[in-house]
Amino acid sequence: MGKKSSNQNVVRYNRWGYIFLIPFIAVYVVFQLVPLVTTIYNSFFENYRSGLTQVGPNFVGLANFVKIFQQGDILKYTGNTMIMWILGFVPQIIVSLVLGAWFSDPSLRLKGQRFFKTVIYLPNLIMASAFAMLFFTLFADSGPINSILMNIGLISKPYTFMSHIWSVRVLVAFMNFLMWFGNTTILLMAGMLGIDTSLFEAAQVDGATPTQIFFRITLPLLRPILIYVMITSLIGGLQMFDVPQILTNGSGDPVRSSMTLIMYLNKHLYSKNYGMGGALSVILFIITGILSLIVFKTTAQNKD
Amino acid sequence: MNEKKSHGMGIGARRALAYIVLILLTFLCLFWFYVLFINSTRSHAELTKGFTPIPSTFLLTNFQNVMKGTLPIVRGMLNSLLVSVSSAALCVYFSTMTAYAVHVYDFKGKAIISTFILAVMMIPTQVTVLGFLQLVRRIGLLDSPIPLIVPAIASPVTYFYMKQYMESALPLSLIEAARIDGSGEFRTFNSVVLPLMVPAIAVQAIFTFVSSWNNYFVPSLIIQTDTKKTLPILIAQLRSADFLKFDMGQVYVTIAFSIFPVIVVYLILSKYIVGGVSVGAVKG
Predict the structure, then answer these.
(1) Number of other residues whose CB lies within 10 A of the CB of residue A240
(2) What digits encode the pLDDT tens for the residues B43-54?
(3) Looking at CA atoms only, how far is residue B240 from chain A in angstroms?
(4) Which of A218, A289, B120, B188 could form a disulfide with B178 if both were Cys (CB 3.0 to 4.6 A apart)?
(5) With contacts defined as CB-CB under 8 Å, which chain A residues touch B255?
């Protein structure tokens, strides 16, 4: 294909590269980059409302960051977020790996694969806020879950799911698990199908059991995808908001044990405390930046 | 071939275990929606008596009561539709255009731009939302759907998917041929490239639509007027209202109203959606 047959034409055409980029770049700069810069800028100013009086904006350097760590809430909320993420992610990755292995195993010949894949992916598309509201009503003191549990004689009086620290956390984690394990299964399965089948055949000939094949061949070869899934899930976990916000009506109760980082940010945004909100955003930005860098590095390695 | 060594389970036992686990997970995924359906057909009086697995006859009554109530859910659905459809349309069109620019043309700074887009792909909107809110307030677009729609033009994730797809499905010789036939670059993009991209566009349009439909965080900070609110904001409002004063039948119908349309659409399009999940995210 005559690559540089008419150099001048190519240059004339290539001008269109810039033109086609204009909408993306313009919108990105206005709605993402400028807000990012002003968010960082805000983090260096004291700027909040106290009753009817507006304090600031006054430049205070890093005082907001010092304050946010001195108050200590951020550590508590980071802990909550991580606990709920781990509670959901561990079963998610285990179930997804097992399902992925089953779906991609030709010797198992599972029937109805499309049906099962369709079903397990379904919760991912459900509006998280409506899903959380649904769970709130189902697990209410007089809700159907308590009614069912009492009917089958598992408990004698309603269990107050919403007023125990661990039941709320487990509910949030469980909803996250339900919403994401189908997605992860499909990703991992695609990765497993990409593995050279001659490796499996060779292992079978050598007398390896399915369990051995899974741990010795599938898992090591899946490492890049596993890292990708884990880090992107962690980034998603740090953004956890809709489910706990709706489930606990924004309070993060009991005793703020299910308050996540973004719920904390949301509180600052509502009370118009832009200094603290900015500082919190910058901290989240740095954490996700580092995590993204890891994803970027591992996927770049994967390509070579 | 299927003969297994003595270690581990036989193929039959493994298959049985797989089916049991799959059926259990299917139950876990669908049970909640089944209860939701049953309960939205029951009256408040029936609901207070406890759960029964058989539907009742109050679905329409509950729905009519909701319509008479204070929560404008039909309006909310229309608002959600407006925002989600516009976002999806803008997002796929301009992401394809951006991917096209990087895929087809050779210009100075191309490497920098494509690396940059890849690098910012993971930055969540939440960390820039403070500045975003200030910007929206300054340009007078607070309480308007525009700031929920226009930013969809710059979507690094959709761009990335489109670029991946182009690498496998858009031969440069085709564009060359269009040029020889005298087609302008913009026309080539609209009438030659876009039709070829339809499978990828469909998948991404669905995903963008759904994520915009489900979005709660940013809309809740921007929209204030009742008649402009999208469904997730109304759900949050339902949650914060004094719960016990409510007719529970109405609560269930409202939740069902925001969940079931998506389920129906999903079941119709599931073939494309489930297939589309893995294509963009995992490389080779």
Answers:
(1) 24
(2) 888 888 878 888
(3) 6
(4) B188
(5) 130, 133-134, 137
